[in-house]
């Protein structure tokens, strides 16, 4: 088997090592093979033909969380995410994994599987941690209905099944600014992010084309999942058509959109008590979209925030990483948990479903920032501002 990568992308690395402190797998292991520089060196050796794609090579690639924390740290502008995505696509996930990603394209199946798992959890028949599931899947979801055509609210697959209250909070906040919310058709499903993360490029492309078709027109596409937002913004480069580039240009993270309309947002409800939250910046918001600052602005009228002291290191969730590499993911999460403990905050805000589920499984109270804001403003009922 051969590996083909862009020669200019590979050559851009000057092996300075400045990225190493920003790599969660290197920080957790101290192993050069699990650093960005080590991984690029391994890619170069294989591409040059002198080294096989053997087990150590595959291990070095599969232990990368694809958090892209190394990219903003790199003075040479090495497009590490592109190199790793191409490598993973050529390593190719095995058949069963591909079939699971195809199921994500059918929301009714995702919901049915979630419901079965939710019942199984209550009967103590489901190993939630091993399957990467939230501790308590919902049996029911609150209603979510379209209210206009001003902005699309992307709903996705797993998040709509597991965290529908986040979509409801996002919709109520958008509507409070005087804008109506359009929703993708019921049959629209996954954006392709999980398939792309695992190197299933053909399935990711199919999902991208279907997602583009589900939200036509010129209205902004607001996304409340950092990973999905990064994927939708990536369609322009991945599909490389004018239509895909126009689509990606319409995609905006929900906190960014709301802060652009903050003069129309309601104040905190009477009697609201401000809580302090530690902000966990999802990698796909901070390193990929560069849009993490807006969460602080959105929350300012409703809550106090405290910053973590780990410079935005990944929490270890990484799509299906915590299922594929549970021990390494746990080592990475342990560092995040220590940073949260040092912050002194009782609860965390995170704008990505994978991160919030993974941190909750370690006993952390986690809320989406839009849920905190909408609850404080009295737009939805909930316990986000009171604690559990
Ligand atoms: S993407 Fe993340 S885990 Fe992978 S090499 Fe870069 S910093 Fe390390
Ligand atoms: S990826 Fe960038 S920061 Fe890391 S070793 Fe190469 S040039 Fe240096």
Number of helices: 22
**Content of β-strand:** 5-15%
Strand pairing plus helix content: what structural class?
alpha/beta
* Number of β-strand runs: 8
- Could you spell the SSE succession in H and E letters? HHHHHHHHHEHHEHHEHHEHEHHEHHEHEH
Overall pLDDT metric: 93
Give the terminus-to-terminus CA distance. Answer: 53 Å
The rounded Rg comes to 20 Å
Shape: globular
Largest sheet: 4 strands, parallel
The helix content is: 40-55%
Q: Which residues form runs of ≥5 with pLDDT under 50?
A: none
User: Ligands in the structure?
Assistant: iron/sulfur cluster
Strand order within the widest beta sheet: 2-1-3-4
Q: How many separate domains?
A: 3
Supply database-style keywords.
388 residues, alpha/beta, Fumarate Reductase Iron-sulfur Protein, Chain B, domain 2, Rossmann fold, 3 domains, 4-stranded parallel beta sheet, binds iron/sulfur cluster
Word description of this protein:
This protein is an alpha/beta fold and 388 residues long. The chain folds into 3 domains: 7-91, Alpha-helical ferredoxin (Fumarate Reductase Iron-sulfur Protein, Chain B, domain 2, Orthogonal Bundle), CATH 1.10.1060.10; 102-259, no CATH class; 268-376, Rossmann fold (3-Layer(aba) Sandwich), CATH 3.40.50. The chain contains 22 helices and 8 strands. The chain has helices spanning 7-11, 24-29, 36-47, 55-62, 70-73, 80-91, 95-103, 107-122, 128-131, 158-162, 164-176, 193-197, 201-214, 226-239, 242-249, 254-260, 283-289, 294-299, 321-324, 326-343, 353-360, 369-376, and strands at residues 151-154, 181-182, 221-223, 251-253, 276-280, 304-307, 347-350, 366-367. The strands form 2 sheets. Strands 2-1-3-4 form a 4-stranded parallel beta sheet. A 4-stranded parallel beta sheet has the order 6-5-7-8. Strand 7, helix 21 (353-360) and strand 8 (366-367) form a beta-alpha-beta unit. Helix 14 (226-239) packs antiparallel against helix 15 (242-249) and helix 14 (226-239) packs parallel to helix 17 (283-289). The longest helix has 18 residues, at 326-343. The protein is globular and about 65 Å long. The model has no long low-confidence stretch (mean pLDDT 93). Bound molecules: iron/sulfur cluster (2 copies). Residues 13-19, 36-37, 40, 70, 73-74, 76, 78 line the site of one iron/sulfur cluster.
